[in-house]
## 1
Amino acid sequence: MIEAIGLTKRYGNTVAVDDLSFTVAPGRVTGFLGPNGAGKSTTMRMILGLDRPTSGKALIDGKPYAQLDRPLRTVGALLDAKWVHPNRSARAHLQWLAKSNGLPARRVEEVLEMVGLTAVAKRRAGGYSLGMAQRLGIAGALLGDPQVLLFDEPVNGLDPEGILWIRQFMQGLAAEGRTVLVSSHLLSEMALTAQDLVVIGKGKIISQSSTTEFIERATENSVLVRSPQASKLGPLLVDKGYTVRTDDDGSLSVTGATSDQVGDIAGANAVVLHELSPQRGSLEQAFMQLTGDSVEYHAEIGK
Amino acid sequence: MTLLAVERIKLFSTRSPWWCMALAIALTVGMASLIAANTGDQFPLNVAVTQSFTDFGMVVIMVMAALAATTEYRFGTIRATFLAVPSRTGALVAKATVVALLAGVVGEVVAFGSWGISKLIKPNVDLAINSTAEWRNVAGTGLVFMIAALLAVAVGILIRQTAGAVAILLVYTMLVENLIGLIPTLGQKIQRWLPFMHANNFRTADGAPVTDGPGAGSQLDFPFGPWGSLAYFAAIGVGLLVVALVVAKRRDA
């Protein structure tokens, strides 16, 4: 379990992370979602004790990272696959990591096998493709067989096969009862991978909920109505308290109402309809809306 | 002990330390052989003369020591290190220790190698190491290399960038300490407190005067004797390392 309590990071006058509080539960993949620059990486680095929070704290199984004894046995992290000396072999890289936490040399071979790098373990890590480097990073994270795992943008730059592999891998880890926190700036990716979502924008928390709940709440549901009597129907819908927008082609787009409700009103008032169809906004639109620049919007969400 | 083993694996699993060590030894011993071959009646060979160019090896080892710290920052492995060992002080002290021990070994190889090759080239000259001053001059090289390496690791941790750290170390050891002596009246008063001057004083005090090379010109009025100078040099090296450790602990990795 990971807990962030009022986590704040200030660089001079800029606030990178602003009073973040959330928990990450075991047994599920939790997506940590936000646009680039929202403070995801900074938050993860504070959880891992790399960056010092200006205020607040982060706990892993109730303890700050720095107080964990042989931390790789509790927490595995992949923040950047490039954190490897390019002239060191993958095996040597894992060997020093294993040694530092008192893990047996055999464990190095096990994780190499797990991520499929055994055949190239002797090669210098600098010559690895991005996908291989990512696998090496994951091998490092799994070295201590930890119960808590953090991955920062693990699918960035990977090909579809690599993305699928990582997605299934993370879901497998969560299914084993581990705590998995994965950051991403892509809602579409998180919708497939994560069961829970912590969404942040500009360093502030926007929502914490299950993924389905978030998507339902975030995507705007509207009803498209085409009618030769649109000018009659419009005011009737407004009277009922729905929001109505007239599009350029004369069709109406109604938000706040279901297609049933719009149909009933039209029928009751003998309005001819040519089309009545529910519309669903895309995930990207929804995400943009939620994490966009509008400060007022953030405040509204907070209510 | 675990941390020392970790740093040993890290250091020896890349090639640059091997190159630096080989270069340090080849450069110094090569220069010593050139000098030995060109000594004669006008410029007699003695134990001190065989050691005139050990500073070259020391500078190369300092580059290696600085690299041991800066490459970790360059490639982000310092973060991997701090994730594995959250006690940053422990991890960095282990690094400094491993590098310093290695520097000490290289220092001895460089010193005795320079002396040995001179003996081979001029077998007729008496190069026996008799006096304590001569022993200090040759065998003391390892100690000087160790402290210089500590200092260089500290600079590496503080600067975090290879180019910057190496430039500072090279310019300081090769130029600044020597050129400060050129400032009229004040120059020598400052110089007698500079760390590498004391490293030289430790090795060359009470010995045969050195007439050429970087070891020359140590005719300063030092505040300490040879061992006092070594302690002073060590205090500066360790002091700078402590500063670096405090900074690294506070800083975001």
## 2
Amino acid sequence: MGSNPPVDDWATDYDIFDASYVKDPVPVWNELRDKCPIAHTERWGGSWLPTKYEDLQAFVRMVPALSSKNVLVVSQKREEMEFDPVLAEYGNSAPPITSDPPEHVPMRRMLLPLFSPKATEAHRSFTENLCHQLIDGFIDKGACDGALDYAVHIPAKTIAHVIGVDEDRSDEFVGWIRGLLEEGNTDLEKRNKYNRILRRFFGELVDARKLAPRDDLISHLLAQEINGQPVARKAVVGMCNLLLVAGIDTTWSSIGSALWHFAQHPEHRRRLANEPELFPSAIEEMLRVYAPVTMARLVTEEVQVGDVTFQPGDKVLMNFPAANHDPDAFEDADKVILDREKNRHIAFGIGPHRCAGSNLARMEMDVALRVWFERIPEFELSDPDAVTWAGGQVRGPRHLPFRF
Amino acid sequence: MRVKVNADKCEGHNRCCALAPEVFDVDDYGTATALNDGVVPPELEEKAKLAVQNCPEYAIEFVKD
């Protein structure tokens, strides 16, 4: 990663893994929005980077011209992929996130009821107990790593609980997901290794549930039908894979970014502590300002947006985080306003691929921040230089040294 | 005052129901509908306005009677 040459011109040669960009991408987005507003690079396989809210609103609706078959911000070309017996056995898609019409809607409708507001509320007490236990573990020390001792465990254990896999293995799951989405971003051998581990894990589990169903999510998915046919085994493996992969790094990043923000802004921290009725709008504002996720689309037919003509084979990054800072869509876009009234942010994406887990993520953020503020209302960074960030597909803090 | 949800635009973000549960409901798939035929009593107008202003799909609109 560090070996890549520095960027001179962000409009024509951007690098989503540039260390300063990962740490704070907002100045680059603001520059590009005025200058391009859709940037291009040949780095990392080549891609386009839109920065305007309006353009993102348009891109997500260009289906199937912009395909979801490959949503990774860095990917191998199909012809470069070697035959892999594990992927041949268990599949390599992650429906519905990697689905296009017509299979997208039925796949998505299998998952949505499992993540409805009502369904996710049923997991609230689990997450609440978890947050208290985590804080019990470090509160007497007066210090912790907010990313590694707190934020990461909340989505990892909650999603394991929701899927019905062993919560005690959550550290292992986190390792797989980081291997796939963080190190694997720039090291494709590593990505393939962790992809195989995940596929085999869920493949074996799905086969076991097929033989002996239980009262759990995997057995529930296996019992579903699409057009009168049982849903394919590989599709269920892919869905489970998606739930774990999409359910950890993302919410970990959102909880971590919010804590990072409040650690450095005593005026916001105290306002939230004194006015707990602001939690809902404050969480939406954290989601807007620190939106963690960038997805990709693969162009399958020529389309035009603004001055740019996109050709089949091009990759377009769904830069939802930059759209959330567009001054044409948000008043005082770069300012954090905890009681912002008008907030049509798109942190969870928009259009037919809106994050299926958004209700769960919001519940986890709500619980994580409320419990934290109840137990540790006053806290700060003990060593700001020791904070580290992951970027690319999912951006968020990975070390947060706090004292309180 | 009345509100209308455009079901073709709604993608199930659940923002309207979270902000104005007296005015909107969502089904298991997240698709929102306006309760009470969309009629918003004066005391809920502020909440309904918030719901409109926070829908990222621009799926809710006010309609004139």
